[in-house]
Task: structure prediction
Amino acid sequence: MPHNAETEVAGKPLASLPPTHTVTLNINGSDKKLELAPWVSLLDALREYLHLTGTKKGCDHGQCGACTVLVNGTRINSCMTLAIMEEGNEITTIEGLAKGDELHPVQAAFVEHDAYQCGYCTPGQICSAVGLLSEGKAKTADDIKELMSGNICRCGAYSNIVTAIEQVMQQKGGQAHE
Amino acid sequence: MNSFTYARAQDVQMAIAEKTSGTETKFIAGGTNLTDLMKVNVENPTHVVDIRRLPLKQITETESGGLRLGALATNAETAYHELVETRYPLLAKAILAGASAQLRNMATNGGNPLQRTRCYYFYDTATACNKREPGSGCSAINGFNRIHAILGTSEHCIAVHPSDMAVALTALDATVNVSGPNGERSIPFLEFHRLPGDTPHLDTNLGADEIITSIDLPAKGFAEYNTYLKLRDRTSYAFALVSVAAALAIEGDIIKEARIALGGVAHKPWRKPEAEATLVGKEATPENFKLFARELVAGAKGFGHNDFKIELAHRAIVRALLQAAKKEALI
Result:
């Protein structure tokens, strides 16, 4: 009998995997139905199943912030949550921030202030900044630095990132002066 | 990550039943530590029970004048809650000193005290670790141990508990409310975590089939005189080398009550009520705080790289107490 590579390795049958689940995720305003194993992270669901590759995988351990997305408007690390747990929530990724050709104010401020170099951390930085602004806890540039510490930029664009966020905060009527 | 089956608990009883039915079952809520540990094959549950939809998200006042923190309220919701900010600022400060904004938005009050140590060897499955694999040995004692414990260690484990929140909850005399197959019980926070002894694989006294439902804060919040001092390698988003939660009641210049817990130095938040009693009736002076620090850190033992933590702890205690007493000019 021929070996079936999918069910046997070196003549030994593989343990059967637990069943997948039909998971409906609301991403950027539309429902997406996926067949997912329970261990698929939200990050992997976005990138590998929905091909929304704007959200980046940096460390995959919740340390770098490149995978930051908004869930019900709250910023989280998409690598640290299981996609199946996010059923019923409204997920916003970097792809969902602009309105057509009109950039989100944080995106526009990042462009205006050159708040990036290689760009890899940028989607996470922008989603994190959008979350920070809606939290409304940052009042000064120092607050922005503290509350953006979960987003690492190895190019070191930090000072421009802070300036960009400060500008949007001022536009929104916040006080970003030290 | 290993494969596992998934279930979504609809109520506390269902969660407990799911936990009792399987040997390798884990609850998941915020997931910030469990997901991480599953990715490095340190935690390998065969069944994961999602408890995030249980009705345990509320923060409510208790009849005794305290505050009940639902186990599923996030750390961010708790730290920014008006009653926590005004009545328990020590807790708010400690929570906000930990992790990043994203992680605090995910991590829950029940999960935070249950997070595992960040000992490098616990995370590295290629090395021996009595906490991960009982009986295999401790790689930290003679290894790289800069971040490790100086108090309450055993020959089997010198790991530290990483939570900031737990340090404040210990100082505030919080209580952990749990449910299990045999009903409900409450565990004083001081007795919630364990020292390693010869069972370092056990972090807490929570039963294997129990679930945390809430954490109670007593009425007294020490809102006037308190501080959370956290010393670490960078000023944000790093675990404590030494941290101090200090809460004082002061009348005139005299200390009426003192609660001090240390983080980053032991397998559990480190507190000595009998040493705190020696501060009562004294003035808030550097000299008195130095004597107290000597009591609280008595018996500390370094393992080489972490020897500096002993002096650091002494100084941090004095500085934190002066800050809490609003005598920063004396630092």
The mean pLDDT of chain B is 97. The radius of gyration of chain B is 20 Å. Residues 308-324 of chain B form the longest helix (17 residues).
